[in-house]
Amino acid sequence: MKSIYFLGECMVELRVLDGATMGQSYAGDVYNSAVYLKRCFTDIATSIVTAIGQDKLSDKMLSCFKNENINTQFVFRHNSKVPGLYLIDTDAQGERSFTYWRSDAAARKIVDFLDDDVITQLGAGDMLFFSGISLAVIEESAREQFWIRLEQLKAAGVKVVFDPNYRARLWQSEDQAKQQFERALRFSDVTLPGVEDLTVLYGIDSAQQVIDFCQSFGIAEIVVKNGPESVITFVQGQLTAHHITPVTNVVDTTSAGDAFNGVYLGARLSGRSISDAVQLAATAAGTVIQHPGAIAPRDEFKKVMLAAGI
Ligand code: ADP
């Protein structure tokens, strides 16, 4: 059985439904990707590597992972911290705003739990995914240790996948983010960047520039998400532009990139070609954006993906 780890943070999501009522669920980029991968590729062991608390919401978050058939063996429980939380509010014009309470989240402590035993267990896996957001939430004092642990996993044969998604507010400075991103890219076997994430940090504004930039780190498989029209890949010296079908009924683009990442990696682990994997990933992302919130309804999502040939 193939296996993949998604390392990072899952948060409690609150959504204002009307003046007096809120809906509550769970979301976070690595969690979203794990959900969509597992829904499509049931025979890939899919784990989240994170830290949560001992509180009731953490219990429910864990149940939510299990309910999506995600392996929780590497979900660690911090003694005193609790999960991060965010609120989505929508104004009268339909414009969404996000407020976060995550600066003291349990997930920031994940590296504390990655001891030698855990690393030995993780070393048996096929792939580890982390993102620019995962990196940003790891406490600054623990980052050196994170790189040591990642090196050990890579040496054990785990393929490293990085999505350099950039959230300015999570970093102290652009220079700090750049330094960490470049370290991550040097470790990466696969990268799944969007064009926009590298624009602020590097002034990069085209897919070709993203490819050139990632190539300079010697990454074997580069997959550039280039908005509604195309995905560009560069693998074994071959540059390919994959046409995708734009969706006109866009309801909410939250987690489009996450769904793309999860399904792309699941397809690749299942032995699909690059172009098949891109098409399946684009279909998943194109479906997710037609539903509100990060996680689309399971049955509907699976129906579309079955029709697409998962
Ligand atoms: P994110 O900012 O979440 O990374 P992107 O805008 O890069 O999201 O989109 C990720 C993927 O979602 C794209 O590569 C594409 O496959 C799909 N996607 C996004 N917008 C559209 C759209 N309007 N129509 C079809 N697919 C889309």
UniProtKB/TrEMBL annotation:
Ranges where the Carbohydrate kinase PfkB domain occurs: 3-297
GO MF entries: kinase activity
Entries under CDD domains matching the protein: KdgK
Pfam families hit by this protein: PfkB
UniProt keyword Zinc present: no
Source species, domain of life: Bacteria
Keywords: Kinase, Transferase
Keyword Kinase: yes
Similarity annotation: Belongs to the carbohydrate kinase PfkB family.
Stated name of the protein: Sugar kinase
